[in-house]
Amino acid sequence: TSEPQQPLLFSPHWYLIGGVASLFGISTEFSYHFFRVLLLSVLVWCVYLLCTKLFADQRERLAAYATVLFASGLGWIYLIFNPELTDANLHWLQRFPRIPADLYVTEMGLFSNAEQSPLFILSHALLLIIFMLVIRSVEKKSIQNIAALAGLTLLLVLIHPYDAVIILGITGTWTALQLARGRSLNSALPFLIVSL
């Protein structure tokens, strides 16, 4: 909130943004938007790297990249068939439960996420980096990959705890599938570490 608060929880990303503003004598607003642009470029690069990892064909890679960057959901189609929800006289409590989430949850799409807080942009980038590290750890096991995986997962859960559910769900399910297929615990180790 914008009201003065008592320090309670350490939040590294906000500390960094404020610290940079203080160090360089710039406003916190400028620092906020600087980090938004900086982290957005990191996120766009991460999306590109993931697309190159998943798609060998150049056209498929470009189509996937453009889809991830600019997709925003289909909630607008619902509003075409339910125009009464756009009536300004309709109380928001009557309208809100009937509006598709992609119209008001900006983190659902990368393009709309770019307009938001550096926190959401960083969270998306960290999710992608974590899952790319998981893929790399399966291909080539190294203690550096595992350490980076554990450290980045801890950072992400510290700044955006809701993402723990995503990480746990995906890596936990993958670990269970690996073990169900009879693979050794060693091949599922990266997923097991992240899911714990």
Q: State the order of secondary-structure elements, H for helix, E for strand.
A: HHHHHHHHHH
Residue stretches low in confidence (pLDDT < 50, at least 5 long) are none
Instruction: Classify the beta-strand content into a percent band.
Output: under 5%
**C-alpha end-to-end distance:** 32 Å
Largest sheet: none
Please give the count of helices: 10
Q: Based on DSSP secondary structure assignment, what is the total number of beta strands? A: 0
Q: What value does the average pLDDT take?
A: 85
Overall 3D form: globular
- The gyration radius over C-alpha positions equals 20 Å
Portion in helices = 55-70%
**Structural class label:** mainly alpha
Please tell me about this protein's structure.
This protein has 196 residues and is mostly helical. Helix content is 67%, strand content 0%. The protein is built from ten helices and no strands. It has helices at 12-24, 28-54, 58-70, 75-81, 92-95, 110-113, 118-139, 143-159, 163-180, 189-195. The radius of gyration is 20 Å and the shape is globular. The model has no long low-confidence stretch (mean pLDDT 85).
